[in-house]
Amino acid sequence: MSKHSSHRLFSTLIVMGASLCADACAGRTTGDVTTDAEGPSTQDSGTTDDPATTDATSSGSTTADPSSSTSAATTEDPSTSTGPGTVGSDGETDPDTTTDPATTDPATTDPTTSDTDPATTEPELGPDDCDAPSQFVCEDYFPEYDNCFCDPDAPAGPEDCEHTSQWECAWSEYECSCNPERPAGPEDCVGPHAFFCDSYEPVFLTCHCNDDAPMNPEDCFGRGLFGCSWDDPMYGCYCVIPI
């Protein structure tokens, strides 16, 4: 090889080496700037966003607007609170169902008031309120009259009965009636000695028969203890048994 050819070959190699070096350096710089997935070097430091203008959604949190926040001044006014009320299914208190103690009428809750006015309570019925004492009927007569009323269909006296001997009363002269099962007279018993009445004069009054009554002293074992309710004629006879 001539000297001139060697010089040309050497020059060519220098040019090729410089070209290869330039391409290698250019590729490394380009890789550092354009790679998106290799880290923070992909962001141009010259185009960094202003923190004041950064969108809140890019940081993952929302900055509260002070003008839309509920301040202490807008807290529920205690003067408008209705106190405890009815709690609904949603957990909210319904103020419409709350009773304001200040609006409660004391007159409607006065324990001294009563539906029954003593002045208008009807007094207990008495015998004088009926047309006759015999028509005065009560559920109980002692120790006081209880649940009484007047029976206008009851007889006013013994004379209202077919036979005065059939007159009877439940209590003294009250709640009286005519009992046809009582004897009309001595002839309805086994004999006059068996005819007993509450009264024999002026009329037979409230009578009954006792068939076991003795007819004479001999029926009292001869001890002279024989007696009768009425002597002439002898009505309602009996034996006096000494104790």
Task: Please describe what this structure looks like.
By secondary structure, this protein is of the alpha+beta class. 13% of the residues lie in helices and 16% in strands. The chain has one helix spanning 3-34; strands spanning 86-87, 93-94, 136-137, 149-150, 167-171, 174-178, 195-199, 205-209, 226-230, 235-239. Strands 1-2 form a two-stranded antiparallel sheet. A two-stranded antiparallel sheet has the order 3-4. β1 and β2 (93-94) form a beta hairpin. 12% of the residues are buried. Mean pLDDT is 71; it is low at 28-76 and 78-83.
Topology readout:
Elements: H1 3-34, E1 86-87, E2 93-94, E3 136-137, E4 149-150, E5 167-171, E6 174-178, E7 195-199, E8 205-209, E9 226-230, E10 235-239
Percent of residues in helices: 10-25%
In the predicted model, the low-confidence regions spanning at least 5 consecutive residues are: 28-76, 78-83
Shape assignment? rod-shaped
Radius of gyration (CA) equals 64 Å
> From N to C, what is the helix and strand string?
HEEEEEEEEEE
Q: N- to C-terminal separation?
A: 187 Å
SS field, number of helical segments: 1
Mean pLDDT metric: 71
Total DSSP E strands = 10
